[in-house]
Amino acid sequence: DIQMTQSPFTLAASVGDRVTITCRASQSIGNSLAWYQQKPGKAPKLLIYSASTLESGVPSRFSGSGSGAEFTLTISSLQPDDLATYHCQQYSGYSPTFGQGTKLEIK
Amino acid sequence: QVQLVQSGAEVRKPGASVKVSCKASGYTFTGHYMHWVRQAPGQGLEWMGWINLYAGGTSLAQKFQGRATLTRDTSMRTAYMELTGLRSDDTAIYYCARDHGNSWPLYFDYWGQGALITVSS
């Protein structure tokens, strides 16, 4: 199976900050990567697919980039509503796999 | 609008089985794969498997082969996940999640609300 590694595990930032989360795959996955936001006590929500395509209705402060084995999720100006855990997921292999998640805290 | 509504929380003893349901509405039920994903307390997301809701074929992650069974009832627009031989480390929230497509596992565009399964003696 393809292993996904996210960094950092936790991240504390202030409102208005630019925030970047990284996801690395154990082998090249092309652009077959999705990002999800999971707020406390809720199900995950799709943010980005195909590494950089924003899902309908997702605020434009979210963006994704990367290809091959290294990807980033960027929040251009952090808002209080962005308090959540963010997960990456690859879908290149026959078995989808997730990163371990990055918990984003607001300072 | 697309909705996935799951069955409620359950408590089981070690060694028992549990069956979680996921009722879909708002789209063509057989037009998308359905996945099952679980999340242990304080942990990340773990993919369990998918089912082709049209043909009924399934694929399970290796660690769940022999213990998990995915089925569907197209007349009821409902998918099911049954897990047997429950252990304490199976305590988790179990989610169903709709695949964006229907020919290859992709990403998950809609999720159920989750069902908490607690395994305790």
Describe what is shown at a glance.
Chain A is mainly beta. Helices cover 0% and strands 50% of the residues of chain A. At the A-B interface, strand 5 and strand 10 of A face strand 10 of B.
Description:
The complex is a heterodimer of chains A (107) and B (121). In chain A, strands 2, 4, 5, 6, 9, 10 and 11 form a seven-stranded mixed beta sheet that branches. A four-stranded antiparallel beta sheet of chain A has the order 1-3-8-7, with no helix packed on it. Chain A has strands at residues 4-7, 10-13, 19-25, 33-38, 45-49, 53-54, 62-67, 70-75, 84-90, 97-98, 102-106. Chain A is built from no helices and eleven strands. Helix content of chain B is 0%, strand content 50%. Chain B has strands at 3-6, 10-12, 18-25, 33-39, 46-52, 58-60, 68-73, 78-83, 92-99, 108-111, 115-119. The N and C termini of chain B lie far apart (40 Å). The model of chain B has no long low-confidence stretch (mean pLDDT 96). The A-B interface holds A 1, 34, 36, 43-46, 49, 55, 87, 89, 91, 94-101 and B 35, 37, 43-47, 59, 61-62, 95, 97, 100, 104-109, 111-114.
